[in-house]
């Protein structure tokens, strides 16, 4: 095959026709008159076995045969132009996502069939996360510091010991009048700069408190004050997914012990990685009555961080995805918030019909809604928050008028945006971190097992 630019020097079955990947790329470019773009570190010191045997008359079939062996994906950028990147296990194409939904829909055709599938998924999700192997919750009391009062609400800093020596920190927002039963709203954080301290998170939780709810925002694992115990890179370890779900469950355990917390009116809403937690928590915890996943629901994107997909939950029962996991909320009310500039862009046409079919098994399609913002991007911005407020007001019995202007628009101007240090539980210099706090991921693994 020297006429095609493929060297055969010293290439035999004895060495598996092995060639440097970079040399194979050069041969591909020459033979098919294409250009392949890639970062140098992706191909350095890599070799392709049976290189020449992978070539086909069709360029796309050849590229697949060569690069699939390297866990490298190929994206066509234009006529004769291709880009290489490391295989991303959490991503499919939109077309592949739709095909998976079609396959999943073929597994059940009625409520009874879905209930069997749902029960099996729930068992597998718990097992994949190893939730039943986690240490029991310590008997320690939450650490509560520095109560502040603002216009219509209060804020307190809270740390909860979820397993021995491991703390999750958050901010508890309550209405000034706590004499009546209050809905509880969990607000898991996502992968946005500044974490739970950012202004849109404060606006959201404070506004919910002004509407009459008890709202709790909390750190991702190894973010925020959790970074006092773990390194930043520990957030991208698979066990982070388990810890974040366990944290949410044990936060809810504590919140429901609060005076006048209403156990029948529990909601959860987060965006991006917080949206992943929202869907998974709702699937696993029947105490959650209402869910609002934001900027996350997708048939082809399972969450790019191991804290969202690292424990293999999407491999359960022959393979599932976030749409089927979100469907496990049925028949509980659910608002899916999507936008036009991330992987939720297809929700109205692809993911929503799948959810509607599942809710239809219960005759409850009326409690499933989608707020789609085609001109917006990946955030939990003002329009998305407004949609969430209205939905939770209807399903939790909250006072929407308390946060509306005379014209009926959402008005968040009464919210005080606090500086970050005001929200710290353990102090600006971690001087209040408990003595029993562990300080490494290795110590965590000793407790929970690898």
Tell me the count of domains. 2
Q: Could you give the count of β-strands?
A: 14
Strand content: 15-25%
Order of helices and strands: EHEHEHEEHHEEEEHEHEHEHHEHEHH
Looking at the structure, the CATH topology of the largest domain is Rossmann fold
Q: Which CATH first-tier class of the largest domain would you pick?
A: Alpha Beta
Average pLDDT confidence is 95
What structural class do the secondary elements suggest? alpha/beta
Radius of gyration: 25 Å
Describe the oligomeric state of these chains in a short phrase: single chain
Describe this structure in words.
The chain is of the alpha/beta class. It folds into two domains: 2-86, Phage tail protein beta-alpha-beta fold (3-Layer(bab) Sandwich); 115-423, Alpha/Beta hydrolase fold, catalytic domain (Rossmann fold, 3-Layer(aba) Sandwich). The protein contains 13 helices and 14 strands. The protein has helices at 21-32, 40-43, 59-67, 94-105, 111-129, 199-210, 239-255, 273-284, 306-309, 322-327, 351-360, 382-396, 441-448; strands at residues 19-20, 35-37, 47-48, 72-78, 81-86, 143-150, 153-163, 166-175, 182-188, 214-218, 261-271, 290-294, 334-339, 368-373. The strands form three sheets. The protein has a nine-stranded mixed sheet with strand order 6-7-8-10-9-11-12-13-14, sandwiched between helices. The two termini are 50 Å apart. The model is unreliable at 1-5 (pLDDT under 50). It comes from Arsenicibacter rosenii. This is Acetylxylan esterase.
């Amino acid at each position: 095959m020297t006429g095609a630019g493929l060297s055969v020097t010293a290439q035999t079955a004895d060495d598996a026709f092995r060639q440097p990947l970079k040399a194979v790329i050069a041969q591909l470019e020459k033979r098919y008159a294409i250009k392949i773009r890639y970062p140098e570190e992706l191909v350095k010191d890599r070799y392709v076995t049976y290189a020449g045997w992978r070539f086909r008359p069709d360029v796309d079939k050849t590229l697949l045969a060569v690069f699939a062996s390297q866990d490298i994906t190929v994206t066509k950028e234009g006529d004769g132009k291709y880009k290489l990147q490391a295989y991303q296990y959490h991503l499919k194409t939109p077309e592949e996502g739709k095909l998976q939904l079609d396959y999943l829909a073929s597994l059940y055709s009625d409520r009874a069939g879905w209930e069997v599938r749902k029960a099996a998924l729930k068992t597998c999700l718990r097992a994949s996360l190893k939730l039943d192997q986690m240490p029991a919750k310590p008997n320690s009391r939450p650490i509560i510091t520095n109560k502040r009062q603002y216009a219509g609400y209060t804020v307190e800093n809270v740390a909860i010991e979820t397993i021995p020596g491991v703390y999750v920190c958050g901010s508890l927002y309550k209405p000034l009048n706590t004499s009546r039963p209050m809905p509880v709203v969990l607000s898991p954080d996502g992968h946005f700069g500044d974490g739970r301290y950012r202004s849109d998170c404060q606006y959201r939780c404070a506004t919910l408190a002004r509407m009459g709810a008890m709202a709790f925002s909390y750190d991702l694992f190894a973010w925020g004050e959790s970074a006092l115990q773990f390194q930043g890179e520990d957030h991208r370890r698979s066990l982070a997914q388990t810890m974040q779900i366990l944290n949410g469950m044990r936060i809810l355990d504590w919140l429901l012990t609060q005076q006048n917390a209403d156990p029948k009116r529990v909601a959860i809403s987060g965006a991006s990685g917080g949206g992943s937690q929202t869907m998974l928590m709702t699937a696993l915890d029947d105490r959650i009555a209402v869910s609002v996943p934001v900027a996350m629901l997708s048939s082809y994107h399972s969450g790019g961080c191991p804290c969202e997909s690292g424990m293999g939950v999407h491999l359960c029962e022959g393979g599932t995805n976030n749409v089927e996991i979100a469907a496990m909320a049925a028949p509980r009310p659910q608002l899916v918030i999507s936008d036009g500039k991330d992987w939720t862009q297809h929700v109205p046409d692809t993911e929503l019909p799948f959810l509607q079919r599942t809710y239809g098994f219960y005759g409850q399609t009326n409690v499933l809604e989608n707020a789609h913002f085609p001109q917006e991007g990946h955030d939990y911005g003002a329009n998305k928050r407004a949609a969430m407020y209205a939905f939770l007001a209807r399903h939790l019995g909250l006072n929407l008028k308390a946060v509306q202007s005379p014209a009926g628009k959402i008005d968040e101007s009464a919210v005080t945006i606090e500086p970050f240090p005001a929200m710290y539980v353990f102090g600006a210099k971690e001087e209040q971190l408990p003595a029993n706090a562990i300080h490494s991921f290795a110590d965590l693994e000793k407790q929970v097992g690898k």
